[in-house]
Design goal:
The chain is built from five helices and no strands. By secondary structure, it is mostly helical. Helix 1 packs antiparallel against helix 4 and helix 3 packs antiparallel against helix 4.
Length: about 130
């Protein structure tokens, strides 16, 4: 559910950034919408990774965190560098929004936890985790 809300917040934030004319509008679009969206997505993506790894769990979580940070820096910058001189900044930001929407929809549809929810409830109730299958 947080993946869905994160996808919606980021898409709305990027689309409203392209039509913003005043500073407070850019602040609301980027700071509030995109910030909340990234928070929702980071919680979900980091919470799902440990369910797939037993032995090298810290390395898996670190790699997922590092990959998302590097992607957030290089992805929009590369698109702006290539597309902005051709169509202008006002049209480049919606392009970034549509690319983000398509990739986030794929991630939202494909991300699933490996451990059933009854196992998670058992850990909370007893405090003792059982080994993964």
């Amino acid at each position: 559910l947080s993946m869905f809300f994160g996808t919606c917040f980021i898409t709305v934030g990027l689309m409203t950034t392209s039509v913003a004319t005043k500073f407070y509008q850019v602040f609301l679009a980027q700071g509030l919408y995109v910030g909340l969206g990234c928070g929702c997505l980071s919680i979900s993506s980091i919470a799902i990774v440990p369910t797939y790894f037993n032995k090298r769990r810290p390395i898996a979580i670190g790699t997922a965190s590092l990959g998302s940070g590097i992607s957030n820096l290089t992805h929009p910058g590369g698109i702006i560098y290539r597309v902005e001189p051709r169509i202008g900044l006002g049209s480049t930001v919606p392009v970034i929004g549509f690319i983000a929407l398509s990739t986030l929809l794929i991630a939202t549809l494909l991300m699933r936890t490996r451990i059933p929810s009854s196992h998670v409830r058992r850990i909370i109730q007893t405090g003792v985790p059982r080994p993964l299958p």
